[in-house]
Specification:
14 strands, alpha/beta, five-stranded mixed beta sheet
Amino acid sequence: MALPPEPWPTGIAEQCEPLVRRVLAPNPSPYTYTGTQTYIVGNAGDVAVIDPGPAEPEHIDAIVAAVGDAKVTAIMCTHTHRDHSPAAAPLAELTGAPIVGCAPLVIDSDLPRSDEAFDTTYAPDRVLEDGEAMTGEGWTLRAVHTPGHTSNHLCFALEESGALFTGDHVMGWSTSVVIPPDGDMGDYMASLERLLAREDRVYYSAHGEPIEKPRQLVRGMMGHRRQRENQILRLLGEQARTIPDFIPEMYKGLDERLHKAAQMSVMAHLLDLERRGLVAQDTNDTWHAN
C-alpha cells in the first residue's frame, strides 16, 4: 500500500477518543507504514503508554510531552520487534514506571525478514498472562493473548470504551506478516478467530488508521489467508514444488525485492498444512500434497 501524502503528524499527540491519544514515531518504512503509533491511555492522574516504539530521543521527548503532568503507571508492549519496545527502557528511566505486557523473546535466525528484528534490550518488570489487567484512574487494560505474528504477541482491551489495541496482529494498512520460525500461521488464524468472537468497537493498531469495522476486517483477513492456503493446495495438486516455485503463480507482478518475504509467507502456510497432514516435504526441499 502506498504511503499517504506528507506531512504526517509525527511527534504530535492526537486525540483518538476521550481516554486515548496517539503519538507517531519518526520511523516510516515499507514495514512500518508512516511509523509506529504509540498510544497513551488515560487523562490527568495516571496513564499507560502502549508500544513506546523505537528508542529515538525525539519520539521519547514527544511521549513525555504528551503525558504532561500525569503519572505514567505502566509502559505496555504488545510484542518485542524493534519498532515497538526499545523505547520502553529509557522511558522507564525517565518516569519510574514499570514495563509490563508481553514476555521477552529474541529469535536468532538467518532467514530473511519482511519486518523488524527482535529487541534484545526488552526486560519487563511484569509479564501479563492472558486475561490479566492493568488499571488506573478511569481505565482498565486487559491482556488478550494473540500469538501468530510473534509467539509473545498481546493485544490490550480498554474495557471502558470497547477499544482494542492490536499491535501488529491486525493493522490498519496491511496484512500482518507471519514469519517462521517464531511466526506461526496456525496460531495466527486461531488468534483471528478469537478476535472475531469478541465485540470490540474499534481497533487501534500500531500502524495505520483506526479500524472502525473490526469484525468485518478480521473476516476479510481470514478469507485472504484461506485463499492463499487453497492456492498452495491447488498448485501442489498439479505437481511438487519448491517454495520459490510458488511465487510467480501466487504473487503475479510482485516486485522482486519482495520475493523473499512472499516465500516466508508461503513457508508459514506450508508448515501449518504439514502439521495438519495435508502436505509433506521431501528431502530436496520440494513439497508435495498428501
